Amino acid sequence: MRKKIVAGNWKMYTTVEEGISLVNNLIAGLSKEENLNKTVIVIPPALHLTSIIQTAKNSAGKIHVGAQNCYFEKEGAYTGEISPRMLSHAGVEYVILGHSERRQYFNESNQLLAKKTIAVLEEKMTPIYCCGETLEQRESGKYKDVIKAQIEEGLFDLSAAQISNIIVAYEPVWAIGTGKTASPEQAQEIHAFIRSLFALKYGAAIAEQLPILYGGSVKPGNAAELFSQADIDGGLVGGAALKADDFLGIINA
Ligand code: PGA
Q1: Looking at residues 86-95, what average pLDDT do you find?
Q2: pTM exceeding the 0.85 threshold for the entire prediction
Q3: Closest Cα to atom 7, ligand 1: which residue?
Q4: DSSP for 20-53?
Q5: Is the pLDDT of residue 33 over 90?
Q6: Which atom number of ligand 1 is nearest to the Cα of residue 130?
Q7: What's the CATH code, domain 4-252?
Q8: Where in the chain are the domains?
């Protein structure tokens, strides 16, 4: 059985103080949960990481912390960048890679993401590798080809052992921040498709263990139905991760 994962991507929202207060509210909400059988991850802006890691220490291990991006080099003259080594030494456990906003606004290619993925794994952190099609790509009917290329070019140089340490997130770009969620059936179709790609390349056993999260307008009201699909192992949540009550509602879904 794959454990459910709920990850909150704060994007470029909140000040450090607001972030700390959000995590304190999540800790209060989760304190009643005796056996939390899910992995909860908060993913604040890079500036907040050390403070949020400190705050999350009061969660009795219930809240894990991730970063939204990183570079692939260990160190060097790369003004403005943050390395996987810096993140892991700060206590970061997860790193989102290839979010559609990074692909779209910062021109991140599958080839660049392949390098970042390896660099994150080398620092013993877990990449949350994002894929997903635009509305145009969905309407043209070529969306599976787009997702296949994102997965194959970004991840298929990894060994089977490395693949066992990644998380994939399917986020249709047309559903991100738009209020339009993929229907549970639409999402399940792609999640099963993604799992089949891994089964072909790495074998059924590894594909069966791979967590695949759905992202795109996940809300407390639609999370339960999405998460009940056979191949959906939780969510990567944007807007609704910024309010403790909404995020707790999704965690409980
Ligand atoms: P959203 O964002 O939940 O606000 O649609 C999801 C994401 O971009 O990770």
Answers
A1: 98
A2: yes
A3: 238
A4: HHHHHHHHHHHTT-SS--EEEEEE--GGGHHHHH
A5: no
A6: 9
A7: 3.20.20.70
A8: 4-252
Is residue 171 flagged as an active site residue? yes
Structure tokens at 21: 């207060």
Choice among 99, 101, 133, 191 that is catalytic: 99
> How far, in Å, CA of 229 to CA of 178, rounded?
22
Identify each DSSP E strand in the chain by its residue range.
4-9, 38-43, 63-67, 94-97, 126-131, 167-170, 212-215, 234-237
**Which distant-in-sequence residues (6+ apart) come within 8 Å of 127 by Cβ?**
94, 95, 96, 97, 116, 117, 120, 121, 166, 167
Go through 217-243 and write b for each residue having 16 or more CB atoms within 10 A of its CB, e for each that does not: bbbbebbeebbebebbbbbbbbbbbbe
Six token digits for residue 157: 């140089």
The CB-side HSE value for 92 (13 A sphere, CA atoms) comes to: 34
On the CB side of 190, CA atoms within 13 Å amount to 29
Protein residue with its CA nearest to atom 3 in ligand 1: 238
pLDDT at 35: 82
